[in-house]
Amino acid sequence: MMNNYKLPISKINQLFKNKELKPSELYAETFERAAITESIIHGHLELFQEENLKKALNSDERYEKGENLGTLDGIPIAIKDNINISGYATTCSSKMLSNYISPYDATVITRLKNEGALFTGKTNLDEFAMGSSTENSAFGPTKNPWDSSRVPGGSSGGSAAVVSAGSAIASLGSDTGGSIRQPASFCGVVGFKPTYGTVSRFGLVAFASSLDQIGPITNHVEDARLIFNSMKGHDPRDATSLIESKAKQPKLKNAKIGIIKELMEDGISEDAKKEVHKVAKLLEAEGHEIIEVSLPLTKMSISIYYLIAPAECSANLSRFDGVRYGNRVPGSTSSEMMELTRANGFGPEVKKRILLGTYALSAGYYDAYYGQALKARAMMKKEFTDIYEDVDYLISPTTPSDPFKFGEKSDNQLEMYMSDLCTIPANLVGMPAISIPTGLSSQGLPLSVQIMSPSNTDNTLLDFSESLESLVAFTEEPVINGVVS
Amino acid sequence: MSIIPTIGMETHVELKTNSKMFCRCHVLDTELPNESLCPTCLGLPGSLPVPNKKAIEFITLLALSTNCSITNDGMFHRKNYFYPDLPKNYQISQFDLPVGTEGSLEIVVDGEFGTVEIERVHMEEDTGKSTHIGSGRIDSATSTHLDFNRAGIPLVEVVTKPLIKSSKEAVAYIEELRQLVIDLDISEGKLEKGNLRFDANISVAHEGDKELGTKVEIKNMNSLKSLEKAIEYEISRQTKMLIAEENIIQETRHWDEKKEVTSSMRSKEGSADYRYFSDPDIPNMILSNDFVNEIKTIIPELPSQKRKMFIETGLSIEDANNLGKNKNWIGDLYLSITEITGDSKSSFNWVTGELQGQLRKLEIKDLPNWVTAKNLSEIILLVKEDKISFTSGKEILANLIEQEIVPEEFASQNNLIQENNIEEISKIVEEVIENNSEVLERIANGEEKLIGFLVGQIIKISKGQVNPSVAKELLLKEISS
Amino acid sequence: MADKIDIKNVAKLASIKLNQEEEDRLKNDLSMIIEHFDALSKMDLPDDKISIHPLGMSLNLAEDIASKSLTHKEALSNAPESKDGQFVVPPSLD
Q1: How far is B43 from B358, CA to CA, in rounded Å?
Q2: Cβ(C11)–Cβ(C18) under 8 Å?
Q3: Could you tell me if B268 and B313 lie in one domain?
Q4: B401 and B432 housed in the same domain
């Protein structure tokens, strides 16, 4: 018998409609889970208990009258703390913004509010979304519910952990180089990064503007679809927001699936490779065709990404100067104040990336570094577009390995950056990608497989992934330090 | 060997759109600080820019009106530098793909035509306003206050090629640019309000030198007068240094209005590294040929075109230029009147002199609708044909402004029609001579001033209806005979 | 390779005050990363127009209709220091 907080949202909605469960009761369950698990995993930075008690009761009333706002009415969703909710702190897990209260709602928040969703609170992340382990949070790391000596992944570590732990039915994360998919994989849940431009970035604190996307982290693929469709659509407040466009959709039956050769080589653990092969067999048995494809430029992904992302972030984070908001450190002149405020407010990884980006853009280096990266990116996009002439979907591991231990990669920056090898390409080319848990490693830790498809085929990808999800039938749940769920 | 100055002008034009460049906050004219703000123009975390369509239309109008080539596939760039009045610590601007390039502007200097070549016209956003609090000097302030109402207002930057040769030319250029943006209705063009702000880049070199001298940027000139003075001062300063073979530093200097000198702004030597890169928040700005052609159809009459029309009626370049600086209805009125009277100079003087003068005195902004080219021409012709005196003409005009009258009717009803009939006037002359024999004697003895007295008597008797010059002529004739 | 990076200048451009330890460490870290870019920087890549903007989307301009967003109070709500409705900072020399 599944706990309510692990049920698909549509099923919960049915229970609400059939009066077998009330939103306030569900919320109490997730809050109880938070009470039990938060002291161990530290996924939430803040819980909105007081507001939610009221909201849940309002939701109860609506279901009583048969006037619920939508399928998401009464569903508790955790929000990554780089997404603005009016009246609440948006800290981005940084000392710089520890006292910042946002005066506005992100567009995705407005849309979810209109559906009656509850927000459990804000979740932990790597500072300003820069990292792959949530070790870079200024407020302490989040622990992986599967093994508290291991990282939950990053940067949306908190969002993935709370869904895995059951203190939220679903969560929102943001993905720039894999920050939704990688933590979802590490925590054994589903993580979806939509086509760039389908979900508004207005209200998401920008890391790398041409790469960032908000997406759902859920227990089930159908939940990801539900939340994605509630958020997606043109937003006039985001100039990079797409107006609905047509695209040739990949096949759902007898599809051709390409395993990316370059992502099954060195640097990928045997366990991770095994999962891909396992999934490939399942798909073949269903009548799909599996082939091996080569995307040579994928090997350059890390370099391209670590030039473009820091360059964009170096400008995006310039606004944090202690003038209009933020934790100001006094100075005798305003430039001294800004320099000291930024020195004090930013953690080491953030400083590093800002300086790297500043360097890459500075006079004399632009052409060799940033300029090259842009060209390579455009070529990579072409490589992907060409390959999609031959295949419907692409498949790879989500992460090179199962979740690593705290401190294991902190000393070696390049090794840490390599954890994003499989996920970065989808951000660079702006195409959708989803991570689905498929099994456990030899150490009993979750492993996932990533499926990718062309731009603007999001719902088809979700449909395909849902059928794969049933084939895989991954039902394991973490046992949080002896606490029976 | 002479020393040749070279000047380049960088002008920022504030556009009169309803909302800001990258957000929909009101463009407010208010004293209250920080009233018109949103996450975007305040630079809050998570905010995004969305360009203003009207601003793009306005800049395209300006670029086309200055004969620029339009960049069909352009983009916005981030110009990165840290300063408290810059909310994001980068300004969204344009770098190598500005909206307009390679244009020109016709100007009038000392009554002659000239041309200023324009290098580029690009779109950017304004910063907030800093007020330095303290003893009044920038370098001894104790704190700085910031108002971000202005942050994000659309600015068009117009950069000339460094080919301007004198302060007069620079002033004439700014005057022309101001008139242009007013006529295009894209900016209020008020210097005192900061709608038009300009910096000058000045260098000097020996005549014949292939390369230009070191460029010095001059900021803080708030009026045309200070522009002229600042350029003159700086040319003089640099010339002295060049002659003495002293090294001129590339820097930014501040024009001190009180002391009337330019002074060093310490912190800005050399050129800054702005690390320009295309703004990933804003896709390419495609200005299609259809769009450009549509804008072409709404270009109103340009200052240069107005001048041409006025000159064709017989006005000098200088007069034509000045006429065009008024509201368009004045120029139109002038043209209509000239068509009827056939006298461009008279029409020009009456319209820009008497009519404008009287309206200004009465504080009337718009011409009352019963005052037309027809009835104004009537007044002008009455005076031109000597039927009424100039003074009477002024009087009729004053009455016409107040109420609907027919000038000629009004003139006869009020005894303003001048008597030009020689016979009639002669009778009065005779009468006056008869009754003023003493005065005549004194005139005969050399007191010629008294002729005026006698003319005055003639006018008095005729109740102002005698043409004074005719009267005087007849009087003199009589006296000498 | 580490000598190539003028970390002081980069930090100045980025307006971040670094202490000596940070300067040394970051200089090394950045050098290591930059070395990794070597292969990319040496690639012979075509100069196509497509590289100008990352994702080739089309720009939708906004209509010039103004609306009120933040109240004065909201705008100043997070100000570290304010006076008479204005944000206050230490003196900014031009």
Answers
A1: 51
A2: yes
A3: no
A4: no
Residue B436 belongs to a domain with what CATH number?
A: 1.10.10.410
Q: Which residues contact B199 (CB under 8 A, 6 or more apart)?
A: B9, B10, B217, B218, B219, B221
Q: What are phi and psi of B123, to 5 degrees?
A: -100, 140
Confidence of residue B478 (pLDDT cuts 50, 70, 90): confident
pLDDT band at B269 (very low <50, low <70, confident <90, very high): low
User: Has A132 been annotated as catalytic?
Assistant: no
Alpha-carbon torsion, ordered A228, A230, A235, A238, to 10 deg: -40
Domain boundaries of chain C, sorted by first residue: 2-42
Residues 6 or more apart in contact with residue A17 via CB below 8 angstroms:
A63, A66, A68
Give the residue from A359, A410, A420 with the most C CB atoms within 10 Å of its CB, the best one to mutate.
A359
Residue B393 resides in a domain: yes
Candidates C81, C87, C88, C89: best to mutate against B (most CBs of B within 10 A) is C87
Query: Where is the domain boundary, B413, B431, B450?
Result: B413
Active site residue A314: no
Percent of chain C with pLDDT over 70: 86
Catalytic status, residue A155:
yes
C72 contacts on B by Cβ (under 8 Å): 32, 34-35
Given the residues A93, A155, A174, A241, select the one marked as catalytic.
Answer: A155
The share of chain B scoring above pLDDT 70, in percent, equals 98
Q: For chain A, which residues score pLDDT lower than 50?
A: 484-485
> Residue A365 in 3-state DSSP?
coil
Closest-CA residue of chain B to C16: B82
DSSP B213-242: ---EEEEEE-SHHHHHHHHHHHHHHHHHHH
What pLDDT is attached to residue C70? 97
Largest CA distance in chain A: 71
Which chain C residue shows the shortest CA-CA distance from A245? C57
Which range marks the domain in which residue B225 is found? 3-293
What total of structural domains would you count in chain B?
A: 3
Domain A1-485 belongs to what topology?
A: Amidase signature (AS) enzymes (3.90.1300)
The predicted-structure confidence for B247-264, as pLDDT tens digits, reads as follows 998 999 999 999 999 998
Residue of B48, B83, B125 to mutate, testing the A interface (most A Cβ within 10 Å of its Cβ): B48
* Interface confidence (ipTM) of the complex: 0.96
Choose which CATH entry (3.40.50, 1.25.40, 1.20.144, 1.10.20) describes domain C2-42. 1.10.20
Judged by average pLDDT, the poorest of A76-80, B135-139, B339-343 is B135-139
Whether residue C1 is predicted with pLDDT greater than 50 in this model: the reply is: no
| Whether pLDDT at B432 is above 90 | no
Is C80's CB within 8 Å of A302's CB?
Answer: no
Task: Choose one of B293, B328, B347: the last residue of a domain.
Answer: B293
Chains in contact with B, where contact means 3 or more Cβ–Cβ distances below 8 Å, are A, C
Distance separating alpha carbons of residues B344 and C72, to the nearest angstrom: 56
CB contact under 8 A, C92 and B75: no
**Which subunits have 3 or more CB–CB pairs within 8 Å of chain A?**
B, C
Q: Which residues of A touch C10 (CB under 8 A)?
A: 355, 358-359, 362
Q: Closest Cα of chain C to B166: distance in Å?
A: 28
**Do residue B273 and residue B350 come from a single domain?**
no
